[in-house]
Amino acid sequence: MTQQDDSFDVVIAGGGLAGLCQAVAFGVAGLRVALVDRDRPSDLLAEPFDGRSSAIARGSQQVLQGLGAWPLLGGEAQAIRDIRVSDGRPGRPPAPFFLHYAEADLGEGPMGHIVENRALRRALYRRLEALPGVALLAPASVVAAEAGASASRVTLEDGRRLTARLVVAADGKRSRLRAAAGIRVTEWSYRQVGLVATLAHERPHEGLAHEHFLPAGPFAVLPMVDGPAAEHRSSLVWTEDPAIAPALLALDNAAFGRAMERRFGLSLGRLRPIGGRWSYPLGLLLAERFVAPRLALLGEAAHAIHPIAGQGLNLGLRDVAALAEAVVDTVRLGLEPGDAQALERYQRWRRFDTLLLAGVTDTLTRLFSNDIGPLRLARDLGLAAVNRAKPLKRFFMRHAMGVVGELPRLVRGEAL
User: Fold this and answer.
1) CA contacts within 13 A on the Cβ side of 41
2) Does the chain have fewer CB atoms within 10 Å around its N or its C terminus?
């Protein structure tokens, strides 16, 4: 950067998947953007397979399509054609009542896809390279952003100074910019740990995603594309007691596979983990506000929810679409990106969806993460009732696909 290269329409702090998507969205619209990330792209792209994947709902797929990133994934997205939700206990057969979502119930194609995070990053970096208005500053991090009358003054950790009409905080749950803006959060722990890995199995999954509720929390097995050696693969998100999780992570592959089979069964044949294993504490976080003068919170800087419904990244991508539309529409009217009314529009748009989904996931987590007999019977009967009520089931399916409500243009599959 030279002294003439320090002024931008937007500075985005944080280059995770949400931050990358926001940079592409603004870049596609012709804004001058600085994306500040602590990691070098070359380091991230050179990483071996790490086992981490994301569920991409239909609405999120349309966002990525509109940004030009989805076509770059090639054959690395596995369609979710069926979802089976069941209840049970380790070592025992699943309850006879279950909820089954089928692609054929709607006749609109796959309900979503499972994609490796590294494939998403690779596609988004390729899009950034094609956008001359986007500058990627990495490795670097934003340590301060001071809002002024006409612009924000942004300071990087290495002392560099930038100016921007709008700053986007995409710097995660412990957002430095959120704290500096005095935005408080509501948060609590579920006293659960999420174990994440990829597993190989003997039989093909046929695009079927499983969510099996156990007393410690949901045990999800999500279909992935076959691996390089043609092995059948699925992504595992295993909720467990924090007291047990370290011992599970320490098991060798064979013992870990047996522990998975005890909880999931052998419908896919023998199971074994491939790649690494990770764990992270599960909790809920909601910012009291999503905006401040010349500042917008994005993704986990604004909200973090339980992975019980696989909606974390999808919620962030709806943030991306709403913020892009609010800001770009304002700029097209001749106003500036940090316009207070544009930011207020973004906040109104996203608060209801976020609060609703946070409430739903919190209720489901508390309802299903126990082994209380009467509750277990009630939820099993509830799953069976929804399974028989076709109109209600179709509504739940479309909601999970992210295609209901007041949607931004990108989520609707329209151009920004």
Assistant:
1) 19
2) N
